[in-house]
Design a protein that fits this description.
The chain is mainly alpha-helical. It has one domain (about 5-295). It has helices spanning about 5-15, 20-50, 55-60, 65-75, 80-120, 135-165, 175-200, 210-225, 225-250, 250-255, 265-295, 335-345. Helix 2 packs across helix 11 (about 265-295) and helix 7 crosses helix 8 (about 210-225). The radius of gyration is 46 Å and the shape is elongated. The termini are far apart. Mean pLDDT is about 80; it is low at about 360-368.
Amino acid sequence: MASISPTLEGFRLMFRRPALGLAEIAWRWSFGMAATALIGFCFLEYLDTLPVSRADMFLLRTRQPTLVSQALAHILRGSVPRLVLAMIVLATLLGVAWMVMASLGRAATMHEMFGYFRAQAWAVDSPAIKTLHFGSLAGLNFLRVGAALAAGVGCAGAFVLGGMASSEKNPSPGSAFLIAMMVLMLVGLAWAGLNWFLSLASLFVPQGRNTMSAMLGAVDLCRTRAGPVLAAGAWFGLAHLVVFFVATSVVAFPLAFAGVLPAGVVLGGVLLVTLLYFAIVDYLYVGRLAAYVAILQMPAPAPATVPVAAVRPSAPAMVAPLATNIDKDEPILSDHSARFFAATPNSVDKAENILGDAPPRHSEEPAD
């Protein structure tokens, strides 16, 4: 069987099933428009609560920066607690709404993706998806909302840390800017990585797993098939980068005619290019998820086997015959010892008594 490319399968699904991309755009843009309208309405209501006196209006009409700033400071005095409370309530409502819509939208798109890849000849046998598993998806999306909230707090802390590096006595705006940008970059990378991991974990929910089990499945997928996962993410990330550069280049055309065309036409052109960019990005997001689903449906790689080469018995090493050039006439150690003992004279005096021949001497006592 030919090798399967998850990236190509993801791009192929984008063109074969355009309804998936349209569905992704529908639920994302519906939430986006509702959130924009709600934020605008809350902002207008907040402005209506601000007291504006005649003196403030006079200072605003002068258009002098110093007088205008004094008027704004007087108008906004005492309204910060109300603004913070409104932001907390608004963020909570938007977070809950996003959890519900994202869970429903992701369940619908994954149902179609798994059905598409299950029909492929190379896909492994997997049970059909009968339920949407809304609770598990809501749990993952709740974690994503928490990650976004933590990222927002981290961004606010970045500016606080940057402000601590510069004081009134020793101002250092360059150091403050670098510290704030560094912390913002780290917070952004951490949030992007965690958000990507939680979105990947949602692919395991259709298998009947809960929130924690889906996260463990994502960890196991990254561990066992890290190569295909990184390759698919890299290719779709490169496509996203290309689309971004093209969009920034195209949006420069209406801005170039800002002095000639009316402001409404220029703004409309910029808005149109921006909407097209977000639509293509949503399509690419569907393709990347489809590539990850293709990795899940791919058959498990066979364990690598090392062929054992047949070991041929080597021919026994020929033992070189011992050299036989020994001189037989040359005397050896035994010959020397024999000659030594033969030439030793027998100088033992047989007449000399030795210890064994000496008779025992007893003390002679006179007889009584």
